[in-house]
Amino acid sequence: MCLSAEVSFAAAAILVPTGVVSTYKAARTDWRYVPICALPFLFGVQQLFEGLVWTSGEAGDLTAISRYSLAYMFFSWLAWPVWVPMAVWFLEPVRRKPLYLGFVILGAIFGGGQYLPYAVHQEWLTVTFLPHAIAYGGIELFDFLLAREWTYSIYVLAVVVPLLVASRPEIRVFGVLVATVLAITYLFFRFAYVSAFCFGGALVSIYLVGMIFWKGRRSAQGRELERGEDAIASDPAGSATAHAPGDLPR
Q1: What pLDDT, on the 0 to 100 scale, is given for residue 65?
Q2: Which of 1, 40, 134, 155 has CB 3.0 to 4.6 Å from 19, enough for a Cys bridge?
Q3: Confidence (pLDDT) at 4
Q4: In the structure, what pLDDT confidence band is assigned to residue 242 with cuts at 50, 70 and 90?
């Protein structure tokens, strides 16, 4: 994000292995959490691409800047509006799945409309290197139909709202963290909002690692409690015999 190539590469070095660990833990704990717990890994890959944008800019390699910025924007415009609601879809009860399917479809249409034109019109995407920040801008397809404020409102609807209205409280907590990052970005970093929001999202995704380990510990405690209850239920006579008066020493 903002700051430097070193910061982006450091974030990637932390998030990629951390995301692998959280995804593996989710697979062992509850497979439905795998997509949401893969977010740190995906954010790490995105930060890696931004680090490459930084180094390409320092080298003055315009071709590399275009290539890596397109890879970076793939996550910003297309991956997040689809992946986030899809990840929550796996965690929702059946009656709420149609709502999240709607979020996924909205994200796919919106994200595709925002990102895919860059593959044809690479000159639409502009990359400006500021002191300690990268500003991604240029022409967006929906500029021909909507004001930018409406475009960003649709983005928030596709990415942030699915987290905030999730049925599971631990996902709503993550939604509050992401919404906080969005507010901070809007208030202080509008000059580089894409980079700032994605970097902030990458930082708060660390919460998901702690969340899945907490879930795993709770599941393990629940299994131990069930085993203890099953053992008592399977041998009620033995428990009674152990306390029978006739067994007391004379």
Answers
A1: 94
A2: 40
A3: 87
A4: very low
